[in-house]
What does this fold into?
Amino acid sequence: MIELLAFGDGGWGDEMLQGAAMTVAVATSAFLLGLVFGTLGASAKLSRNLILVGVAEAYTTVVRGVPELLVIYLLFFGGSGMVMALASVFGYDEYIEVNAFVVGVVAVGLISGAYSTEVIRGAAQAVPYGQIEAARACGMGRWLILRRILGPLTLRHALPGLGNVWQLTLKDTALISVTALAEIMRQAAVGAGSTKQPFVFYAAAAVLYLLLTTVSTALFDRAEKNAMRGVRRA
Amino acid sequence: MKSTIATLLVGAAIALSATAVATGADAKEWKKVRIATEGAYMPWNGTDSSGKLVGFEVDLMKDLCTRMKVECELVAQDWDGIIPALQQGKYDAIMAGMSATDERRKVIQFAGPYANEPSAFAAMKGSPLLTIAADPALVDMKELTADERTVIERLASQLKGKTVGAQVSTIQASFVEKYMPGVTLRTYDKVDNIGLDLVAGRIDAMFADRSAIGGLQKEGATKDITVFGTQYRGGILGDGVAVGLRKADKDLKTLFEKAIVEAHKAGVTGKLSTQWFGYDIAVTP
Amino acid sequence: MDWELMWDSVPALLAAVPLTLQLVALALLLGLGMAALAAWARLSGHAVAAGAASAYVFVFRGTPLLVQIFLIYYGLSQFEAVRASLFWPLLREPYWCAILALMLNTGAYQSEIIRGAILSVPQGQVEAARACGMSRLLLFRRIVLPVAVRQALPAYGNEIILMVKASSLASTITLLEITGVARRIISQTYAVFEIFIVAGILYLLINFAAARLIRWAEWRMTPHLRARV
It folds into this structure.
C-alpha cells in the first residue's frame, strides 16, 4: 500500500507534498489577511461609532455562526460576482477572474478574521489604562502610543489566542478542497478516488496536518516566550 | 437580535451583487475557452498519479479546440457545483460526461452530443441481485411501450427495500427517484465513492453510466463490481453526452457544434472512444 | 436572487433540522464521556493511561475534522477485518460514522476544557473539604464538580456552536442534514446562493438559541455572582 505514496510519476508522494506546500501557502496568507480583518474588526468594536460597532458585530456573529463550508461555497460561487459588481461601480464591465487560490484565501481569511477580531479586542482591553495615561503624560502622540505602547502590549496579550486562531485556520483550509485547489485534502481525495485506497491517502493527509500543527505550535510557543521576556513571573 | 439584523444585511449585500453578475458575453470573439471537467469519472475524465487531467474528454477537447482555432484551458471542478460555476462564469463550457436533458436545458444549453452510453445497474460479485436477467438488454426511455413499462416495474419490485447508490445531480439519480419508489436512494459526490461503498456493503446496488462502472472494474478493490439486468437510455436519461454551455453564448455553441461534427466525420471521436472505452460510443449530433 | 425559491426551500431545510440537532446532541453527549475518560486518564498520574489520552487529544485536535470523517467512513470500511468485526453494524451506517467522528473530535476538545476547569478549582477549597472529612467521591461531587462546571460553561457553549457548524460536514458522507439537503436542492435547482443563504440563516438561529441556553444555564449556576436586589 505504501508504494502508492512513492515520489515520481507512479506515486502520489510528490503530489501530497505539493499539497502540503499549498496548504501552508493558503493558511499563511489567510491568517495574515485574517489579522488585517481582525485588527479592523477589533478597532471597529472598540470605537464609539455605532455603525462601525454594528458592522463588526454582524461580521463576527454571522461568520462564526455559519458553517465554514457554507462561507466557502458562497464565496466560491459568488466571489467573482461580488468583485465584478464592485468593479462595475467604477465603470469596468469585463469578466474578472477570481482564481481558486484567491477565493480560498479570502474565504478562510474571513473566518480567521472573525476569530482574530475577538482575540485582538480582548487583548487590547487587557492593556492597563495606566500605561496609556503614562505615555500621554510623557507627551506621546496618538500614533506613537499605538506604535510603542498599545501595539506591542496588545500583541503580547494576543499571542496565545492567535496561536489558537492559526490552528483553526490551518485546519479550515481542508475545506477549500471543494474549490478544487490542490491542497492536502484535495490531493488525498483525488488519490483515494483514483486508487480506491482511501485509508492510505487520508492517513497520509492526517500525518501531514499533524506535522504542520506540531511545528507551528512550537513556533508560536517560541514567539510567546520571546514576547513575554520582559514579564516577571512568580 | 443582533445576528438577525446582521443576516439580513449580509443577505441584502449578496443579493445585490448576485443580480449584478454579467450573464456572459454576447458577441465576443472567442480566443480562449475555459472548459471544466470533473476529473473523477474514468474513462470519460480522470486524474492520473501526477495530478494531470486525462481521459476521453480531455483528448477530445484538445481536438475540438484545434478545430475551433481557440486556445483552451482545462479546469477541474467537482460535479455538484459544475453547472452553478458555469453560470457564474468560472469557465465557458462543460465536458464532463454530462448528458443533455430537458431538466438541464432549463438552465444551460448543449452542443452535441458527441457520445452516448446507456446506464446500468451493478452489484458485487455474489449478490443475489445478479440473477436479475438482462431481458430485454436495452430499454429506450423515450416513448415507453407497455412491455417496457412492465420491465421497469418488475425491476422496481425486485429492488424494493434495497439501497441503491447514484451520483448526486445525475440522470441516474433522477431515474431512481422517479421509477423506483420502494428503493432508498443514496447520492454520492463521486462515482469512485459509490464503488467503495458498494464494495463495503453499505449499498446493495449502484446505478451509473455503463462505462463509468467499467472504469471501476478496471482496478483495485472495485474490480468485482458486476453489471446486471436491463440497461436504459433516452428520455429521462438524456439524449447523449454533450458540451454544456451558458444559454447566452450562442456563437460558442455554433463553434462547438461545427467542431463536433467535423471530429466525428474525421473519425477522431470514434478513434478516441475505442482507445479509452474499448468500443465506439461516438454519435452524430 | 430568486426569493420564491428561497421560500420554497424552507420546509425541506426545516425538515432536516432534527437530524442536525440529533447529530450535535449525541456527539456532544458521547464526547463528554470520551472527554471525562481522557481528562481522568491525564490527571490520574498513570503513565500509560495519561500517554494514551494525550495522544488521542493531540491527534484529534491536530487534524481537520474532514480528514477524520473520511478516515472513519471510507478508510476503515476498506478493510475486510473491520467489515467482519463486531462494530460493522454501526460503522456500516453513515449516521453512526458521523457521530463517531464528531464525538471523537469534540471529545478531544472537551477533555481540554474539563482538564482546565478541574485544574482551576482552588486547592484551598479541596483542602478545606478534606479537613471536614469528606471522602474522595463526596469531595468531587460537592466541591470539584460544581466549581469546575461553572468554570467550564462558557467554553462549553463555544464547543456547542462549533459542533453545530461541524455537523455540516456529515453531508460529505451522504447524510441529509441541513447542509446535505441544501446541496441536494442545489443539485436540482442550481441556485447555490439562495439555498445556502437559507441554510446559513437556519444555522445562525440554532446557534443563537444554543448561546441563549448556555447563558441561561450560566445565570442559573452562578447565583452568588448576581447583583443583590
About this structure: Chain C is about 80% helix and 0% strand.
